[in-house]
Hints:
Elements: E1 3-8, E2 13-18, E3 24-30, H1 34-41, E4 49-54, E5 65-66, H2 69-77, H3 86-99, E6 105-109, H4 119-122, H5 128-134, H6 143-156, E7 162-168, E8 172-178, E9 181-185, H7 206-215, H8 220-229, H9 232-237, H10 242-250, H11 254-278, E10 283-287, H12 288-293, H13 295-303, H14 314-318, E11 324-325, E12 334-337, H15 342-355
Amino acid sequence: MRVLVVNAGSSSLKLRLLAADDEVERTADVEPEPERLGDVLADWPTPDAVGHRVVHGGTRFTEPVVLDDLVRQALVDLTALAPLHQPKSLAGLDAVHRLLPHVPAVACFDTAFHTTIPAAAATYAVPREWRDRYAIRRYGFHGLSHAHCARRVAELVSPGLRLVSCHLGAGASLTAIADGRSVDTTMGFTPLEGLVMATRSGTVDPGLVLWLEEHEDLSPHEVATALEKESGLTALAGTGDLREIDAAAAEGDPDALLALDVYTHRLVGGIASMAAALGGLDVLAFTGGVGERSATVRRRAAERLGFLGVTVDPERNQQVDGDTEITGRDARARTFVITAREDLEIARGTRAALAGS
Protein backbone atom coordinates (compact mmCIF):
# COMPACT_ATOMS: atom_id res chain seq x y z
CA MET A 1 0.00 0.00 0.00
CA ARG A 2 1.44 3.35 -1.10
CA VAL A 3 0.94 5.94 1.67
CA LEU A 4 1.09 9.73 1.48
CA VAL A 5 2.31 10.94 4.88
CA VAL A 6 1.21 14.46 5.84
CA ASN A 7 2.90 16.30 8.70
CA ALA A 8 1.38 19.73 9.32
CA GLY A 9 3.98 22.21 10.58
CA SER A 10 3.65 25.80 11.74
CA SER A 11 3.65 27.24 8.21
CA SER A 12 3.87 24.32 5.80
CA LEU A 13 2.83 20.77 5.02
CA LYS A 14 5.65 18.25 5.01
CA LEU A 15 4.72 15.54 2.51
CA ARG A 16 6.37 12.17 1.99
CA LEU A 17 5.15 9.45 -0.36
CA LEU A 18 6.15 5.97 0.76
CA ALA A 19 5.94 2.88 -1.45
CA ALA A 20 4.58 -0.41 -0.17
CA ASP A 21 8.10 -1.35 0.96
CA ASP A 22 8.51 2.08 2.69
CA GLU A 23 10.92 3.37 0.08
CA VAL A 24 10.61 7.17 -0.14
CA GLU A 25 9.25 7.92 -3.63
CA ARG A 26 8.62 11.67 -3.25
CA THR A 27 9.10 14.37 -0.63
CA ALA A 28 8.11 18.03 -0.48
CA ASP A 29 7.53 20.91 1.91
CA VAL A 30 4.68 23.11 0.66
CA GLU A 31 2.32 25.83 1.81
CA PRO A 32 -1.09 24.44 2.86
CA GLU A 33 -2.92 26.19 0.02
CA PRO A 34 -4.96 24.05 -2.40
CA GLU A 35 -3.29 25.54 -5.49
CA ARG A 36 0.26 24.96 -4.29
CA LEU A 37 -0.56 21.56 -2.86
CA GLY A 38 -2.36 20.58 -6.04
CA ASP A 39 0.64 21.53 -8.18
CA VAL A 40 2.84 19.16 -6.18
CA LEU A 41 0.46 16.21 -5.94
CA ALA A 42 -0.48 16.43 -9.64
CA ASP A 43 2.98 15.12 -10.56
CA TRP A 44 3.05 12.37 -7.94
CA PRO A 45 1.67 8.83 -8.17
CA THR A 46 -1.77 8.60 -6.59
CA PRO A 47 -1.51 7.14 -3.08
CA ASP A 48 -3.64 4.27 -1.84
CA ALA A 49 -4.04 6.00 1.52
CA VAL A 50 -3.16 9.18 3.37
CA GLY A 51 -1.71 9.20 6.89
CA HIS A 52 -1.93 12.42 8.88
CA ARG A 53 0.09 13.33 11.94
CA VAL A 54 -2.33 14.80 14.49
CA VAL A 55 -0.85 16.27 17.65
CA HIS A 56 -3.65 15.56 20.14
CA GLY A 57 -5.95 12.57 20.43
CA GLY A 58 -7.04 13.16 24.02
CA THR A 59 -8.02 10.08 25.99
CA ARG A 60 -10.37 8.83 23.25
CA PHE A 61 -7.92 8.08 20.46
CA THR A 62 -5.33 5.59 21.64
CA GLU A 63 -4.39 4.24 18.21
CA PRO A 64 -4.61 5.36 14.57
CA VAL A 65 -8.18 5.84 13.35
CA VAL A 66 -9.78 6.02 9.91
CA LEU A 67 -11.03 9.55 9.32
CA ASP A 68 -14.70 10.32 8.76
CA ASP A 69 -16.97 13.23 9.66
CA LEU A 70 -17.50 12.04 13.22
CA VAL A 71 -13.77 11.59 13.86
CA ARG A 72 -13.00 14.98 12.36
CA GLN A 73 -15.55 16.64 14.65
CA ALA A 74 -14.00 14.87 17.63
CA LEU A 75 -10.62 16.30 16.63
CA VAL A 76 -12.16 19.77 16.42
CA ASP A 77 -13.55 19.27 19.93
CA LEU A 78 -10.02 18.54 21.17
CA THR A 79 -8.70 21.90 19.92
CA ALA A 80 -9.07 23.45 23.39
CA LEU A 81 -6.41 21.01 24.65
CA ALA A 82 -3.93 22.00 21.92
CA PRO A 83 -4.96 25.42 20.56
CA LEU A 84 -1.57 26.09 18.97
CA HIS A 85 -1.18 22.73 17.23
CA GLN A 86 -4.54 21.08 16.54
CA PRO A 87 -5.81 23.72 14.06
CA LYS A 88 -2.72 23.16 11.89
CA SER A 89 -3.36 19.42 11.84
CA LEU A 90 -6.99 20.01 10.86
CA ALA A 91 -6.03 22.49 8.15
CA GLY A 92 -3.64 19.95 6.64
CA LEU A 93 -6.26 17.24 6.81
CA ASP A 94 -8.80 19.41 5.00
CA ALA A 95 -6.36 20.66 2.37
CA VAL A 96 -5.36 17.14 1.31
CA HIS A 97 -8.94 15.82 1.47
CA ARG A 98 -10.11 18.49 -0.99
CA LEU A 99 -7.59 17.21 -3.52
CA LEU A 100 -7.89 13.48 -2.75
CA PRO A 101 -11.51 13.09 -1.61
CA HIS A 102 -11.78 9.41 -2.53
CA VAL A 103 -8.51 8.26 -0.97
CA PRO A 104 -9.00 6.83 2.55
CA ALA A 105 -7.27 8.83 5.27
CA VAL A 106 -6.07 7.92 8.75
CA ALA A 107 -5.19 10.10 11.74
CA CYS A 108 -2.10 9.05 13.71
CA PHE A 109 -1.66 10.73 17.09
CA ASP A 110 1.39 12.07 18.90
CA THR A 111 -0.35 11.44 22.21
CA ALA A 112 -1.41 7.83 21.55
CA PHE A 113 1.95 6.23 22.41
CA HIS A 114 1.72 7.68 25.91
CA THR A 115 -1.71 6.30 26.81
CA THR A 116 0.12 3.38 28.47
CA ILE A 117 1.67 5.67 31.10
CA PRO A 118 0.50 4.51 34.55
CA ALA A 119 -1.69 6.72 36.71
CA ALA A 120 1.15 7.57 39.06
CA ALA A 121 3.03 9.25 36.22
CA ALA A 122 0.01 10.67 34.37
CA THR A 123 -1.84 12.29 37.26
CA TYR A 124 -1.38 15.88 38.44
CA ALA A 125 -1.93 16.50 42.15
CA VAL A 126 -4.68 19.05 41.52
CA PRO A 127 -8.35 19.01 42.64
CA ARG A 128 -10.32 16.00 41.40
CA GLU A 129 -12.97 18.35 40.00
CA TRP A 130 -10.39 19.87 37.66
CA ARG A 131 -9.12 16.46 36.55
CA ASP A 132 -12.63 15.18 35.85
CA ARG A 133 -14.18 18.29 34.32
CA TYR A 134 -11.27 19.49 32.21
CA ALA A 135 -9.58 16.15 31.39
CA ILE A 136 -6.40 17.37 33.08
CA ARG A 137 -3.63 14.80 32.99
CA ARG A 138 -0.16 14.38 31.54
CA TYR A 139 -0.75 13.45 27.89
CA GLY A 140 2.80 13.53 26.51
CA PHE A 141 3.76 14.35 22.93
CA HIS A 142 6.28 13.39 20.20
CA GLY A 143 4.82 9.90 20.54
CA LEU A 144 5.28 8.98 16.88
CA SER A 145 9.00 9.77 17.12
CA HIS A 146 9.45 7.94 20.41
CA ALA A 147 7.54 4.93 19.07
CA HIS A 148 9.78 4.69 16.01
CA CYS A 149 12.87 5.07 18.19
CA ALA A 150 11.70 2.22 20.42
CA ARG A 151 10.93 0.00 17.43
CA ARG A 152 14.31 0.68 15.82
CA VAL A 153 16.28 0.07 19.02
CA ALA A 154 14.48 -3.25 19.47
CA GLU A 155 15.58 -4.20 15.94
CA LEU A 156 19.19 -3.15 16.55
CA VAL A 157 19.58 -4.65 20.03
CA SER A 158 16.66 -6.73 21.28
CA PRO A 159 13.10 -6.33 22.57
CA GLY A 160 12.26 -5.98 26.25
CA LEU A 161 14.81 -3.28 27.06
CA ARG A 162 14.66 -0.30 29.41
CA LEU A 163 15.10 2.59 26.98
CA VAL A 164 15.20 6.35 27.44
CA SER A 165 14.36 8.01 24.12
CA CYS A 166 15.55 11.62 23.75
CA HIS A 167 13.69 13.51 21.02
CA LEU A 168 15.69 16.74 20.83
CA GLY A 169 14.76 19.35 18.26
CA ALA A 170 13.11 22.77 18.35
CA GLY A 171 10.67 20.94 20.61
CA ALA A 172 12.16 18.38 22.96
CA SER A 173 10.96 15.57 25.18
CA LEU A 174 12.15 12.38 26.82
CA THR A 175 10.27 9.12 27.20
CA ALA A 176 10.89 6.15 29.46
CA ILE A 177 10.07 3.00 27.46
CA ALA A 178 9.81 -0.46 29.00
CA ASP A 179 9.41 -3.36 26.58
CA GLY A 180 8.21 -0.99 23.85
CA ARG A 181 5.63 0.81 26.02
CA SER A 182 5.77 4.37 27.30
CA VAL A 183 5.80 4.50 31.11
CA ASP A 184 6.75 8.14 31.65
CA THR A 185 7.57 11.25 29.64
CA THR A 186 8.62 14.84 30.21
CA MET A 187 5.90 16.73 28.34
CA GLY A 188 2.56 16.91 30.11
CA PHE A 189 -0.84 18.52 29.64
CA THR A 190 0.79 20.68 26.95
CA PRO A 191 4.05 20.52 24.97
CA LEU A 192 5.36 23.35 27.17
CA GLU A 193 6.27 21.13 30.12
CA GLY A 194 9.65 19.50 30.52
CA LEU A 195 12.98 20.28 28.88
CA VAL A 196 14.37 23.63 27.79
CA MET A 197 13.59 24.02 24.08
CA ALA A 198 14.41 26.44 21.26
CA THR A 199 11.75 29.02 22.14
CA ARG A 200 9.79 27.24 24.91
CA SER A 201 10.73 27.57 28.57
CA GLY A 202 10.04 24.01 29.57
CA THR A 203 8.90 23.49 33.16
CA VAL A 204 8.68 26.61 35.32
CA ASP A 205 7.25 27.18 38.79
CA PRO A 206 3.45 27.68 38.42
CA GLY A 207 3.79 30.31 41.12
CA LEU A 208 5.90 32.38 38.74
CA VAL A 209 3.04 32.48 36.23
CA LEU A 210 0.60 33.55 38.94
CA TRP A 211 3.01 36.19 40.24
CA LEU A 212 3.50 37.71 36.78
CA GLU A 213 -0.27 37.93 36.25
CA GLU A 214 -1.18 39.16 39.72
CA HIS A 215 1.71 41.48 40.58
CA GLU A 216 2.98 42.63 37.17
CA ASP A 217 -0.44 42.75 35.49
CA LEU A 218 0.64 40.63 32.55
CA SER A 219 -2.29 39.05 30.73
CA PRO A 220 -2.50 35.24 30.31
CA HIS A 221 -1.92 35.78 26.60
CA GLU A 222 1.26 37.78 27.24
CA VAL A 223 2.63 35.16 29.59
CA ALA A 224 1.71 32.30 27.25
CA THR A 225 3.33 34.04 24.28
CA ALA A 226 6.52 34.67 26.23
CA LEU A 227 6.78 31.10 27.51
CA GLU A 228 5.98 29.56 24.11
CA LYS A 229 7.83 31.84 21.71
CA GLU A 230 10.31 34.04 23.60
CA SER A 231 11.86 31.70 26.15
CA GLY A 232 14.10 28.64 26.16
CA LEU A 233 17.45 28.91 24.39
CA THR A 234 16.26 32.05 22.61
CA ALA A 235 15.82 33.83 25.94
CA LEU A 236 19.16 32.63 27.26
CA ALA A 237 21.40 33.07 24.22
CA GLY A 238 19.46 35.19 21.73
CA THR A 239 18.97 32.26 19.35
CA GLY A 240 17.26 28.89 19.44
CA ASP A 241 19.81 27.37 17.05
CA LEU A 242 22.14 25.13 19.04
CA ARG A 243 24.72 25.22 16.27
CA GLU A 244 25.07 28.97 16.74
CA ILE A 245 25.10 28.60 20.52
CA ASP A 246 27.77 25.90 20.34
CA ALA A 247 29.96 28.09 18.14
CA ALA A 248 29.52 31.10 20.41
CA ALA A 249 30.27 29.01 23.50
CA ALA A 250 33.52 27.85 21.89
CA GLU A 251 34.49 31.53 21.68
CA GLY A 252 33.73 31.99 25.36
CA ASP A 253 30.44 33.88 25.05
CA PRO A 254 28.96 33.86 28.58
CA ASP A 255 25.32 33.78 27.46
CA ALA A 256 25.98 30.84 25.16
CA LEU A 257 27.86 28.99 27.89
CA LEU A 258 25.00 29.55 30.33
CA ALA A 259 22.47 28.39 27.73
CA LEU A 260 24.38 25.13 27.18
CA ASP A 261 24.72 24.60 30.93
CA VAL A 262 21.01 25.16 31.58
CA TYR A 263 20.02 22.97 28.62
CA THR A 264 22.34 20.16 29.74
CA HIS A 265 21.29 20.42 33.39
CA ARG A 266 17.63 19.99 32.53
CA LEU A 267 18.37 17.24 29.98
CA VAL A 268 20.50 15.16 32.33
CA GLY A 269 18.04 15.54 35.18
CA GLY A 270 15.24 14.43 32.88
CA ILE A 271 17.13 11.37 31.67
CA ALA A 272 17.87 10.38 35.27
CA SER A 273 14.19 10.77 36.14
CA MET A 274 13.15 8.60 33.20
CA ALA A 275 15.73 5.96 34.21
CA ALA A 276 14.29 5.99 37.73
CA ALA A 277 10.82 5.33 36.30
CA LEU A 278 12.29 2.30 34.52
CA GLY A 279 14.25 1.01 37.49
CA GLY A 280 17.48 1.27 35.52
CA LEU A 281 18.79 1.90 32.02
CA ASP A 282 19.76 -0.49 29.23
CA VAL A 283 19.77 1.89 26.24
CA LEU A 284 19.92 5.67 25.78
CA ALA A 285 18.89 6.89 22.32
CA PHE A 286 19.13 10.36 20.80
CA THR A 287 16.83 11.37 17.94
CA GLY A 288 15.44 14.57 16.37
CA GLY A 289 17.42 17.37 14.73
CA VAL A 290 19.56 18.22 17.76
CA GLY A 291 19.77 14.67 19.02
CA GLU A 292 21.06 13.44 15.66
CA ARG A 293 23.37 16.34 14.78
CA SER A 294 24.81 17.77 17.99
CA ALA A 295 27.84 15.81 19.13
CA THR A 296 28.27 18.48 21.81
CA VAL A 297 24.89 17.85 23.42
CA ARG A 298 25.42 14.08 23.38
CA ARG A 299 28.93 14.41 24.86
CA ARG A 300 27.89 16.86 27.57
CA ALA A 301 24.97 14.65 28.58
CA ALA A 302 27.06 11.48 28.68
CA GLU A 303 29.73 13.14 30.80
CA ARG A 304 27.17 13.57 33.58
CA LEU A 305 25.44 10.22 33.20
CA GLY A 306 28.29 7.94 34.16
CA PHE A 307 26.41 6.92 37.31
CA LEU A 308 23.84 5.28 34.99
CA GLY A 309 26.58 3.44 33.10
CA VAL A 310 26.58 5.81 30.11
CA THR A 311 29.75 6.65 28.22
CA VAL A 312 30.17 7.54 24.54
CA ASP A 313 33.04 6.86 22.21
CA PRO A 314 34.50 10.26 21.18
CA GLU A 315 35.25 9.25 17.60
CA ARG A 316 31.93 7.51 16.98
CA ASN A 317 30.09 10.46 18.53
CA GLN A 318 31.69 12.79 16.00
CA GLN A 319 31.07 10.55 12.98
CA VAL A 320 27.39 9.68 13.19
CA ASP A 321 25.80 8.56 9.93
CA GLY A 322 22.23 7.32 10.13
CA ASP A 323 21.36 4.90 12.92
CA THR A 324 24.65 4.61 14.79
CA GLU A 325 25.83 3.10 18.05
CA ILE A 326 28.17 5.46 19.91
CA THR A 327 28.64 3.44 23.11
CA GLY A 328 31.97 4.04 24.83
CA ARG A 329 34.38 1.66 26.51
CA ASP A 330 33.30 0.10 29.82
CA ALA A 331 29.73 1.38 29.42
CA ARG A 332 27.01 -0.59 31.19
CA ALA A 333 24.27 1.07 29.09
CA ARG A 334 24.39 1.27 25.30
CA THR A 335 23.94 4.59 23.50
CA PHE A 336 22.54 5.08 19.99
CA VAL A 337 21.70 7.87 17.59
CA ILE A 338 18.47 7.05 15.72
CA THR A 339 17.25 8.94 12.66
CA ALA A 340 13.79 10.42 13.33
CA ARG A 341 11.29 8.76 10.99
CA GLU A 342 7.79 9.63 12.15
CA ASP A 343 6.74 9.00 8.55
CA LEU A 344 7.44 5.28 8.92
CA GLU A 345 5.38 5.11 12.10
CA ILE A 346 2.51 6.99 10.43
CA ALA A 347 2.60 4.72 7.37
CA ARG A 348 2.62 1.66 9.60
CA GLY A 349 -0.33 2.97 11.62
CA THR A 350 -2.23 3.91 8.47
CA ARG A 351 -1.92 0.44 6.98
CA ALA A 352 -2.90 -1.20 10.26
CA ALA A 353 -5.98 1.01 10.70
CA LEU A 354 -7.22 0.35 7.18
CA ALA A 355 -6.55 -3.38 7.45
CA GLY A 356 -8.73 -3.47 10.54
CA SER A 357 -11.54 -1.27 9.23
